[in-house]
Amino acid sequence: MPLVATIDFISFLAVIVALIFLLRGWNRTFPHDIKLLIVGLLGLTLFHHVSNILEWGGISSALDPFEDFLELLTPMLWFMLIYSYLKELTTDDLRKSERALRESEEKYRLLIENQTDMVVKVDIEGKFQFISPSYCEMFGKVNEELLGKKFMPFVHEDDRETTAKAMEALYYPPHKVYIEQRAMTKDGWKWLSWMDTAVLDENKNVIAIIGVGRDITERKQAEKILRESEDKLARSKKMESLGLLAGGVAHDLNNVLAGIVSYPELLLLDLPEESKFRKPIETIQDSGRRAAAIVEDLLTVARGVATTKESLNLNNLVGDYLHSPEFNKLKKFHPRVTFKTNFDSDLLNISGSHVHIRKTVMNLVSNASEAIEDSGNVTISTMNRYVDKPLRGYDDVDIGEYVVLSVSDDGSGISPDDLERIFEPFFTKKVMGRSGTGLGLAVAWNTVQDHKGYIDVTSNENGTTFELLFPITRGKISGKDLAITIAGFKGGGETILVVDDVESQREISCKMLQTLGYKTKAVASGEEAVEYLKENTVDLLLLDMIMAPGINGRETYERIIKIHPNQKATIVSGYAETADVKKIQKLGAGKYIKKPLTLESLGPVIKEELGK
Amino acid sequence: MIQQNEIIMLLLGIGCLIFIWVNKQKVKRIPVAKPLIAGFYVLLAGYLLTFLEGLFWNDLLNVLEHICYTASSILMAVWCWKIVAFK
Closest approach of chain B CAs to the CA of A107, in angstroms? Predict the structure, then answer.
């Protein structure tokens, strides 16, 4: 039958074409076993068609005996082909999954191993389940040492409570918490920040915690430095304000006080010993001196005080104070306090301001006495010390020899909060009105600062100790007799021009100078002084530094030395030894005297200047 | 007259069909699966016609049977061509 034969022939050609395609893509199409199955299938089909063609061609086929058997293989080969293909697909899927997993692991490994942040996973008991290499590096441990161990022992004792609370917070939404803690790393204590996230199961129960940590030590240090700088700046601004305030009032106040301090002195010189006015005048003088002392304190705190430093020995200074009326008064006020001393007999000298250090000692001893509520001991001791390491509260200290003045009490101590503020001006815990202006320790602090020294305070429930360190000097102590007598400074009738804008001050200065045996002439401004000296000559100028309106002391002196190049002068001011004072001294002026003037302060300086 | 091997072929073909149906989703993922599976279906139809030609209309069904085998071969050739082109 030609139709069936034609159909079989087409079929034969189709199989041939299929085989050709298969051979063309032999190396890039199917897996090997599938290719063999397809070839087998096509071969069987080809055999079937060839058999049919031969049969229709009238040729008795020799293939007939095999045909029935081989035809049975066809559906089996189809099954095997489909089955193999599916198996290959499954294997391919698995291979792809493995590759994807490998790639994912590689990415994860790269991420974990190459980041500086630390990554850990802990169970709910805080035991390590995973530790990143950066964590091991930070703590100087290997993975095996840490796995299964708790992380808490690495945390600083003071931060453990906060850390435990943070861990508890992870049990509540949003199941994330940020904490900063100190931890003992291989390089010592370091500040670490942790962003912790809870790992939840399908029932929203916490099963583990993942933490990502970072070393923030540098940031913390920078913050601390910044905070300290801010504190310093605030303190500095406070001191600056106080300085402005003190400086502003000091000049005028000292001029006002001059009348109260200086006139009684002049009056007392003229009064007979038995005069009934002597006692009240002495009281006025004493009050004036105490008022001047408060101004002095303000100036000390403002750090604008003009101080003349001299070699002195703290044993002598403290000894003087312990025999002073002020100390006797203090002892009477605190009868149950026992005062002990422990002086180093070989104590070295220091270069300092006798007045300010004495005041500092007085303030410390007074505070120590008041810290004892009932009965107790106040111990004042001195010693030499070589300082070669930083002191508490100071970033660095100058290495060297120091004299230590220690004042300790066995009172109830100072609270840590108060301890940070005790040196602030006007900070006081004393009952208002009972005693103190709140300047005592501020004066001590500034005095020590001005002497390039250090203060160390230790306080607990058993008492407080203030240690003041002053750098030593090898200079000898001046042998001069501090008990000054007016007779020793009497002048020989020399002429002194008093230049001061305040009338009362001019009067006081003139009277004092006259008492000391000098002739005086007074003018109210720098301009007047210049005009006067164009026509006249004087032996010495007593020149006020700050005069308003008009030119100040420096400018006045500059103009005067153009007229009289070798004009002697002594400078007077109620304020500070400013840059102007230093400048005028460079031009040739003599010593500086601080108001209010006394015969004791004025006499020696005038005498010395005239003797040059 | 129905021959024994024709019944076995048909049964084996149906078994293979069931396997394909059970794994239908996976089979779909075989590259250019449509001509291949269609080729099998047509082949299976040829087996069925082989079986039926022993019962009735043997000349007509015989022609259809051969057409099915030829169609199956052509679909196989198409699949081979497409898969080569696809790869």
Answer: 30
